[in-house]
């Protein structure tokens, strides 16, 4: 049994800890509570919002379609493969929801066909009268070192990932600015924050998106148009299977990093919450990519050495 002196000493220590940490903890808890309330209010307010999602035929795009549909949004599914869009639409219509839902619209669209994008977006505006949220998710990856990657592949990656996204954004912006409301979401990658070997073309396209979003965000803030850039790490989708090689052929296999990535459903839910919190720039990645990001900025020589060793290992 503890003595009175021991109990008094213990109480004194707790009093010291409470005095030191409560002034920090209480504001933090209040901020967390207010953020959660704001997030819940925004998610409830999504019902009836028009959401156009590119790359919606599979993977993260399909998962995002499910998340927005379950929130009651008027989802527009855009991608090249119409048959896969039909499948996703059918799956959405079979979901059991707790909120009123709206039948999704299918928009066959090729991001590399820049001249057709304005017309495609206009067809959505004619149906719905506006687009509340554009989710630029469509894209293609590549597996190949810079030297052996054909310039045509570099051009294709930049055309789809960067120029396709920019064209979609520019097609949607005028109506958003006119209504003084809207959100542009760009699904980038941690490889847009820092580059790794054998991803030069892909990383370059995502670096470009980072710069475009940072400029755009500042320019359209006065028009109440929000810009959210999301940089996920590896996601367990068919991205690597559909990736191009340096010659332009299909990579055709699931690599270990992709197979061990986060689930598309979890990533989609995190993106929805990021939008609700009005996040400007969000990195969704485990410890290793986050560490690499900070190494790149705080200890560049260490980062360069690690990437050199990684490249040497890949080349053997």
List the helices and strands and how they pair.
Blueprint: H1 4-44, E1 50-54, H2 59-70, E2 74-79, H3 82-93, E3 105-108, H4 114-128, E4 133-136, E5 142-143, H5 151-179, E6 182-187, H6 200-220, E7 225-232, E8 244-245, H7 256-259, H8 264-276, E9 281-284, H9 287-298, H10 300-315
Parallel strand pairs: 1-2, 1-4, 2-3, 4-6, 5-8, 6-7, 7-9
Helix pairs in contact: 2-8, 4-5, 5-6, 9-10
Give an overview of the whole structure.
With 316 residues, the chain is an alpha/beta fold. The chain has helices at 4-44, 59-70, 82-93, 114-128, 151-179, 200-220, 256-259, 264-276, 287-298, 300-315, and strands at residues 50-54, 74-79, 105-108, 133-136, 142-143, 182-187, 225-232, 244-245, 281-284. Helices cover 55% and strands 13% of the residues. The chain is globular, with a radius of gyration of 23 Å. The chain starts with a helix and ends with a helix.
Structural descriptors:
alpha/beta, single chain, two-stranded parallel ribbon, 9 strands, 13% strand
Compact overview of the structure:
By secondary structure, the chain is of the alpha/beta class. It has ten helices and nine strands.
Order of helices and strands: HEHEHEHEEHEHEEHHEHH
Count the DSSP helices. 10
Rounded to an integer, what's the Rg over CA atoms?
23 Å
Average of per-residue pLDDT values: 89
- Quaternary arrangement of the chains shown? single chain
Number of strands: 9
Principal-axes shape call: globular
Largest sheet strand order? 3-2-1-4-6-7-9
Largest sheet: 7 strands, parallel
Structural class: alpha/beta
Tell me what portion of residues adopts beta-strand conformation: 5-15%
CA(first)-CA(last) distance: 66 Å
Low-confidence stretches: none
Helix content: 55-70%
């Amino acid at each position: 049994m503890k003595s009175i002196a021991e109990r008094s000493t213990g109480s004194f220590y707790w009093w010291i800890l409470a005095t030191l940490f409560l002034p920090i903890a209480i504001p933090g808890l209040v901020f967390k509570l207010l953020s959660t309330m704001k997030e819940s209010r925004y998610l409830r307010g999504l019902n009836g919002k028009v959401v156009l999602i590119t790359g919606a035929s599979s993977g993260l795009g399909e998962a995002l379609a499910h998340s927005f549909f379950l929130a009651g949004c008027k989802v527009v599914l855009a991608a090249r493969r119409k048959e896969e869009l039909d499948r996703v639409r059918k799956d959405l219509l079979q979901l059991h929801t707790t909120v009123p839902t709206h039948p999704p619209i299918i928009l066959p669209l090729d991001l590399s066909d820049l001249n057709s994008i304005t017309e495609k977006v206009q067809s959505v505006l004619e149906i719905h009268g506006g687009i509340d949220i554009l989710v630029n998710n469509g894209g293609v990856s590549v597996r190949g070192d810079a030297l052996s990657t054909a310039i045509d592949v570099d051009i294709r990656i930049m055309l789809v990932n960067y120029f396709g996204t920019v064209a979609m954004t520019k097609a949607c912006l005028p109506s958003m600015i006119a209504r003084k409301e809207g959100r542009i979401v760009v699904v980038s990658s941690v490889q847009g924050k820092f580059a790794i070997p054998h991803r030069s073309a892909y990383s370059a396209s995502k670096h470009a998106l980072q710069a475009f979003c940072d400029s755009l965000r500042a320019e359209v803030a006065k028009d109440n148009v929000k810009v959210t850039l999301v940089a996920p790490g590896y996601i367990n989708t068919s991205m690597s299977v559909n990736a191009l090689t340096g010659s332009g052929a299909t990579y055709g296999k699931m690599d270990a990093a992709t197979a061990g990535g986060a689930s598309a459903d979890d990533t989609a839910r995190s993106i929805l919450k990021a939008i609700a919190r009005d996040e400007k720039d969000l990195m969704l990645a485990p410890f290793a990519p986050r560490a690499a990001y900070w190494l790149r900025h705080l200890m560049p020589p260490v980062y360069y050495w690690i990437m050199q060793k990684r490249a040497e290992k890949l080349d053997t």
